[in-house]
Specification:
single chain, about 475 residues, alpha/beta, seven-stranded parallel sheet, five-stranded antiparallel sheet, 13 helices, 15 strands
């Protein structure tokens, strides 16, 4: 277990409060009339979501930590083994490791010797993703940066002996305009300070003042992420985590106050209610347009966020599955955050890399129908063709029809495009103008080119331009 240094929580809280108050006064004096947000959900939820996030549509999630060493079951390995004492995990450890082996002994084996941040950044760029979220600290408490509050349990002290957050953030930003974000777990399964607070029924907040808040401020001030993907919130309220004060500082005075985006996991009572965008649940897919911006965070591996050494090819979603998820998510107004699971030595598994590059190939042809689009209020999914989806372009006279299954006889029937005043229909893949006609029994019949002329195999977007008059 890491050696957590003890300091006086009251003193730390007072210093932070004083610093925030001073910053607030200075900022207000320097910028009269600038919108400032109060530490309450009514005020914080009123903050407009920075436009870049809605326009981005597609991001890459990275789950990477000490759990990548045993690489068995899931990233919840430590809890499933020591906390829940799951039979599969206990048997795995009994069979493969010496008696008395501790989870901390996996730390030095998290070597990342093949980790090439520029290679990762290049793969992410080629995937077409507009943002990336790295797990800087999962529930195990191990940090991928030299946290001053995680002595002996971070990537500089134990394992790779390098600042993985810093290395990747610099690489991502050097190659392209991809936004860099951080995942951060509020709670830590076996941190003694957390367990101490739990024992007091959360009447004490030592873990928050001495560990959680210092690390959040450290991440923001040092790495300047544009997303904070919070997690591990569910066992305590937003009051315990002091989320409201932190978010008010983040929105008002932090170095990323103008571009930062956060999710909805800031307390046991905030999920799917408060924050910048809604996640509601892992792999969230509401199946309709909802009133607020939302995100579908899902995995390439069907069964785990973290790397599994015993994963089979059948355990990985096909490119058809992933393109379908992307199109459906964007049609309903969400973003897709797709997770990859690197190995402990720093490699992106070949099938995960292949899926990212395939998505990038598809987006290089059809991205116009995805990026900066919005849901079409008339239809998101065709009422007659379940494999036909719609988005609306930046120009409201443009609608995109995205075909996920090639129609028989090259004839595509669209119920939703019926009786619209159409100027032209162009397939993005071939840039060819297509012919169409109104069917007497209803619907629009579009004559596609022969499939052999297309470059992609997993979906085809049509640009439908309406007459502006």
């Amino acid at each position: 277990m890491p050696n957590f240094r003890r300091v006086t929580g009251t003193v730390f809280a007072a210093v932070v409060t004083s610093w925030i108050s001073t910053s607030a006064v200075c900022a207000a004096a320097a910028s009269p009339g600038v919108q400032r947000y109060e530490p309450d959900w009514t005020s914080l939820d009123a903050r407009p979501l920075p436009a870049w996030y809605d326009q981005a549509k597609f991001g890459v999630f990275i789950h990477w930590g000490v759990y990548s060493v045993p690489a068995f079951g899931s990233e919840w390995f430590w809890m499933n083994w020591r906390g829940r004492k799951g039979a599969n995990y206990v048997n795995f450890m009994t069979k493969n490791y010496k008696p008395g082996f501790t989870y901390q002994e996996f730390g030095p084996q998290f070597t990342a010797e093949f980790f090439d941040p520029m290679q990762w950044a290049s793969i992410i760029k080629d995937s077409g993703a507009k943002y990336v979220v790295l797990t800087t600290k999962h529930h195990e408490g191990y940090t991928l940066w030299p946290s001053k509050k995680s002595f002996g349990w971070n990537s500089v002290d134990v394992g790779p002996h390098r600042d993985l957050v810093g290395d990747l953030s610099r690489a991502i930003r050097s190659l392209n305009k991809t936004r860099f974000g951080v995942y951060h777990s509020l709670y830590e399964w076996f941190n003694p300070l957390w367990l101490q607070d739990k024992q007091s029924n959360l009447t004490s907040r030592t873990f928050v003042t001495e560990k959680v808040l210092p690390e959040l401020y450290e991440l923001v001030n040092h790495y300047k992420p544009e997303i904070i993907w919070s997690d591990g919130e569910w066992e305590a309220s937003d009051t315990y985590w002091d989320s409201l004060n932190f978010l008010a500082w983040l929105y008002n005075d932090s170095p990323v106050k103008d571009t930062i985006v956060v999710n909805d996991r800031w307390g046991g009572d905030t999920l799917c209610k408060h924050g910048g965008f809604l996640t509601c649940a892992d792999r969230y897919q509401p199946g309709r347009v909802v009133g607020r911006k939302w995100e579908n965070a899902m995995t390439i591996d069907k069964y785990s966020w973290g790397y599994r050494r015993n994963a089979r090819a059948l355990d990985v979603y096909s490119i058809n599955d992933l393109i379908t998820q992307l199109v459906e998510t964007v049609s309903f107004g969400g973003n897709l955050l797709l997770n990859i699971s690197p190995t402990s030595d720093g490699m992106i598994p070949p099938l995960h890399e292949e899926r990212l590059l395939q998505i990038g190939q598809w987006l290089s042809v059809n991205g116009e129908s995805i990026f900066e689009s919005s849901p079409w209020s008339t239809c998101q999914n065709d009422t007659q063709q379940p494999n036909l989806w719609y988005t609306r372009g930046k120009n409201f006279s443009t609608i995109y029809s995205i075909v996920l299954q090639w129609p028989v006889g090259n004839l595509l029937n669209s119920a939703c495009l019926d009786k619209l005043d159409i100027e032209s229909i162009v397939m993005l893949d071939t840039q060819s103008k297509l012919k169409w006609s109104q069917k007497t029994e209803g619907g629009l019949m579009i004559k596609l080119e022969d499939k052999s002329k297309t470059k992609t195999e997993w979906g085809w977007a049509l640009r439908v331009t309406l007459n502006s008059s």
